[in-house]
Write a sequence for this structure.
DNA sequence: CGGCAATTCGAACGTTCGTTCGAACAGAGT
DNA sequence: ACTCTGTTCGAACGAACGTTCGAATTGCCG
C-alpha cells in the first residue's frame, strides 16, 4: 500500500551523511528523471506524454507512478534539482573571491558552464518555467528569486565600487537573457566551449555597463 | 463545398491595392487570429485546446475550421504574420539611415517597440519557435534567417568601421537573447517603455562590443 | 421575395491523454 | 519452503483531444 514518492520516502538521516547511503529507489528515480528530462527537452512538457516517458525510460506506464505521483511533480523534481544544484555550485565558487568584477565573471561562467553541460535540464528549466501551478510553482519561484537576488547583489557591488549609474534591474535581466537564450542556438559542433563564450559575454556585459555614464558628484 | 482557408482564398489582386479591399472573411480571420494569439500566449501552443480557442473567440469549435484547416496552420499564420510585419517595419525604418551605430540602435528599438506593443504575438513567436513541422517550419525559419542576417550585416558594418574584433555570431545571439528574454519579465506597471529600455540595452550592447579589444595592425 | 453561396453549428468520430487498480514478480531474511 | 516488503506491470478508466460532416442559418444579389 501507499506508494512512496513523497519526500517522506527519503530516509531521515540523509543530508549530512558523508558517504551517500543511496538507496536503490533513489538511483532508479534519478535514472527516470534523467530520461524524462530528455523527453521534456525534445517535445516540451505538454507535448510529452507519459507514454513517451515510459518508452524512453524502459519502464511501464504504470510503473512510473511508483516513483512520482503525477507528471507535474516530475517536472517539479527536475526543475528543483537543477536549480538547487546551480545555486549550490555558484555559492561554492564565489567563496573567497572578493573582487567584484571577478565575482560577476564567476557568476556568468558558472551559469554557462552548467547550462552547456546540462543543456536538456536547463532548457526544461528555462522553457517550462510557467507550467507548474500553486505549491510546485512557488517553491521553484523561491529558488529563482534567490538566484536573481544574488546576481543583483553582485552587480550592485560592482556598480557602487566603480561609481556607475544604470538600472540594475534592466542590466541583470539583460544578462539573464543573453545567457538563457543560449539554449535556442548553441550547437556543440559549431560553437566554442563555455569558458570561451562566457568570456565573450562577460566582456560585452561588463564593459557595456562600465562604459555607461559615470555618476557625477552631484547626481542627475 | 471546399472550405477556403488556403492562400488561394485571398483574392488575387491584393498586394499593391492601395485601399485595402478587405473582405469579411479576412476581417473575421484576423479576429480569430487575435484571440488565438492570446490563448497560445497564456497556455502555450500544446496546452491550448481548440475548445479554448473556440470559447475565447466566441465561435463554435467546428466553425473555426472554416477559417483554417488545422491548429498547426493557425500557429503558422500567427508566426508568419508577426515576423513578416516586424521585418517590414525594420526595413522601412532603416531606409535612409547610414550611420552604422544608429542603424543598430534602430534595430533594437524596432524590435523592442514591436515586442512590447504586441507582447502576446511576440511571445508566441519566441516561445513556440520549435513546434511547427516541415513546410510550416521552414517558411517561418526563412524569415527568421533573413532577420538574423540583417542584424549580422548591421553589426559587421559597425565592426569594420570601428576596427573592432569580436565574434559577430556570439554578439548577435547575445543581443537577441537580451531582447527576446523580455517576455519573461516585462511588467508594464513596473518597467519603463520601449524607448527607454531600448536605450539601456543599446548602451550596454554597443559600448560592450566597442570597448572590446581593438584590432592591432598586426592582428593577434 | 426567392435562391444561391458563404458562414456557422451540434453532434459525433476515433485517438490519445493522465491516472488507477489489483495482480504478478523479485529478493532477502527466517 | 514460506512470507514479507518493495517493485513492476497489463489492462482498463473517464476525460479531453483534434478533426469531420451534414444540416441549419445567415447575408447578399437578382
Amino acid at each position: 500500500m501507499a506508494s512512496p514518492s513523497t519526500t517522506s520516502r527519503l530516509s531521515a538521516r540523509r543530508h549530512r551523511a558523508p558517504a551517500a547511503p543511496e538507496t536503490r529507489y533513489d538511483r532508479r528515480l534519478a535514472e527516470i528523471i534523467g530520461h524524462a528530462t530528455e523527453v521534456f527537452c525534445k517535445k516540451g512538457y505538454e507535448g510529452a506524454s507519459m507514454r513517451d516517458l515510459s518508452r524512453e525510460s524502459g519502464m511501464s506506464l504504470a510503473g512510473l507512478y511508483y516513483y512520482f505521483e503525477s507528471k507535474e511533480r516530475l517536472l517539479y523534481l527536475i526543475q528543483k534539482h537543477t536549480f538547487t544544484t546551480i545555486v549550490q555550485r555558484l555559492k561554492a565558487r564565489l567563496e573567497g573571491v572578493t573582487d567584484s568584477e571577478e565575482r560577476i565573471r564567476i557568476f556568468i561562467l558558472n551559469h554557462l558552464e552548467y547550462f552547456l553541460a546540462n543543456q536538456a535540464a536547463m532548457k526544461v528549466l528555462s522553457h517550462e518555467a510557467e507550467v507548474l501551478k500553486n505549491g510546485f510553482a512557488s517553491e521553484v519561484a523561491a529558488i529563482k528569486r534567490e538566484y536573481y537576488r544574488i546576481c543583483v547583489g553582485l552587480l550592485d557591488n560592482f556598480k557602487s565600487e566603480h561609481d556607475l549609474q544604470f538600472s540594475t534591474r534592466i542590466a541583470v535581466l539583460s544578462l539573464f537573457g543573453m545567457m538563457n537564450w543560449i539554449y535556442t542556438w548553441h550547437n556543440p559542433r559549431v560553437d566554442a566551449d563555455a569558458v570561451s563564450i562566457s568570456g565573450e559575454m562577460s566582456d560585452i556585459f561588463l564593459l557595456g555597463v562600465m562604459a555607461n555614464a559615470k555618476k557625477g558628484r552631484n547626481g542627475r
User: Anything to note?
Assistant: The CA atoms of residues 72 and 132 of chain A lie 7 Å apart.
